[in-house]
Amino acid sequence: MKVFLAVASLDPKYGGPAYSVSQLARALADSGSTVGLWAPDGSAAASDLVVDHPGIARLRGSAAEALEAFGRPDVLHDNGIWLPHNHRLAQLADRQGVPRIVSVRGMLEPWARRHKGLKKAIAWALYQRRDLRRARALHATAEAEGQTLRALGLGRPVHTIANGVDLPEAPSSSAKASPRTALFLGRIYPVKGLPMLIEAWASVRPDGWRLKIAGPDEAGHLAQVQRLVEARGLRGVVEFPGPVGGAAKEALFKEAELFVLPSHSESFGMAVAEALAHSLPVLTTTAAPWPMLEERDCGWRVEPTAAAIAKALAAATASTPERLAAKGANGRRLVAQSYSWDSAAGSFLRVYEDAVAGT
Asked: For 206-320, where are the alpha helices, taking DSSP H only?
């Protein structure tokens, strides 16, 4: 199978899709497919997230140039919507008769549709709905997102395939550092709900704990969160390590005892999966599609309000290190059993084959 795989960026600052698409490329190449990996910002050519693999071509230039350099693919798999390059890829796929799969990546969830809603309403009317209706199939990372897509009446098959997760080495049993650490890792952006987390932390003020909020600033949201930290008297308790990757990211996972994602909207929540893989219990909201956190006793899942997050935060930070470690071990087992990249790649290949066959 020859797959043209596109995403807005493979820079780690772009967040979950940069990690998931680069890992999908590797898994597809491992399965014997030839993958052309492209991003409009040129990051496919230089990203450290992309492994060097004889089955992966790192493509440059415009969408048209990248497609020409790669040669006609069997299928074009685009990750994301709304942006000019997504519309351009839809046009090129139609013109060349290449079946197109679209991973919507949470961008049609209610919160996401409301954010910058006027621009999106215009884009929906001008081209986006039409582009999705011309796709061969749509991809959701969780069943809740799949239900959202079906409700839009786009008339396209919707396939639910979860992201895979790499399983790091099992953590050592050595004691965690003091003070105890809760970690948020992701884009610092309104959808992530960080003001709710700060309000919740200020309400609970867990003794002997600190909160680390790591990740890249988007749209100047970091300044808003920092102002709220100051206003709630949390200077010295809440830390901002900035964007992290590689060894620095691993170090944050290793020192933390609890992972927190107070999001307003998530199609999958790659950070949740990564935290569980690192044996961290997770506290997140019902806006993230992870009911198994409570079903498998590996975390807390509450309504996306400051009050609900505060209640769960109080319970989590009152837990003993041993209890949190036990929940984290349950989470690691969940990831090992259910979220392999080989399985995800196999599911996508079946979708691609159906698209090529016209079924």
From this structure: 221-231, 246-255, 270-277, 292-295, 306-317
